[in-house]
Every structure is written in C-alpha cells, then in structure tokens.
Amino acid sequence: MKRFKLFIVSISVILVVIAGCSDKIENVGNSIIVEKRIGEEDRYEPFKEITDGEVVEKIKLNGVRWINGDIKMAIPPNYKFHFEGGSKQSKSDQLIYYLWVSPNKDWVELVLEGEGKLARLSERDSAKFFETLTGGKLTDEN
Question: N or C: which end of the chain has fewer CB within 10 A?
C-alpha cells in the first residue's frame, strides 16, 4: 500500500512539472486581423481580415518552435497580426505577433509581443505561412 501511494504521488508531481514547463502558446479566435507596415516607420494600416476557418487554423502556429530571449530588431516588423473573436480572449490578453521578412526574402521570423519569444520558420514553411497570411508570395514582398 505504501508503494502504491508513493507511485501516485510521484506520477502527480511529474504531471504538474510537465504542465508547468509547457511552452505551448494558445491561439484563440475565429478570425485574424493583419496589419502592414507603411513605409520605413513603425506605422501600420489594416491590410487583411481572415475569417475562413480553415485558413485561420493553418495560421495558428501549432508546432512552431519558439526560442526564449531578449529580442531587439533593427527595423520595425513588416506585418503585425492577432487573433480575434475567441470566447476565452479579452482585449487585454490578446497575443500580437510581429512578422519580419528576411533581406533575401527566403524566410520569415515571428516575435510574440511581450513574451520574449522568437521563431524563425524554414524556407518552405515561411513561403507557405506568408502566402496563407498575406495572400502574396514571399519572394514578391517589398
């Protein structure tokens, strides 16, 4: 009986540690608002609203590897986007993503505002993600 109790306590502790260490970012919402940078300044204008459920699911960034760190970029992001319309989400806890296109237009980097998280997508994933988010080709970006 003593071993059984120890086993249950051990499993409980392991599950709590795994849940606490989880680095999953939950994107909620059934639409995405995309803003595009105007010129070289840190000013943005509404670019696109994505309401197609299948497209929203593709953009939810499930499985993206986020790196923690102090992130400072030399130029403002090319795009900003956020999810809207989720019942669990309020304006104050809305996650805002920043997207930079590489100088050679072959990959994108994403930063999660206020979270200190950065992700660089592979060339193939970058092209697919960019086209899904903006409707344009990564290689055609200004």
Answer: N
- The three-point CA angle 111-57-99 to 5° equals 20
Cα–Cα distance, 88 to 136 (Å, whole number)? 31
Q: What is the DSSP letter of 135?
A: S
DSSP secondary structure string, 26-45?
Answer: ----SEEEEEEE-TTSS-EE
Q: Minimal CA–CA distance to 104: which of 134, 141, 65?
A: 141
| C-alpha distance from residue 65 to each of 23, 24, 49, 98, 126 (Å) | 9, 9, 25, 15, 13
Beta bridge partners of 120: 109
Name the residue type at position 82.
H
Tokens representing 102?
């590489």
pLDDT tens for residues 65-108? 999 988 888 899 999 999 998 655 555 568 899 999 999 999 99
For 27, how many CA atoms within 13 A lie in the half-sphere containing its CB? 19
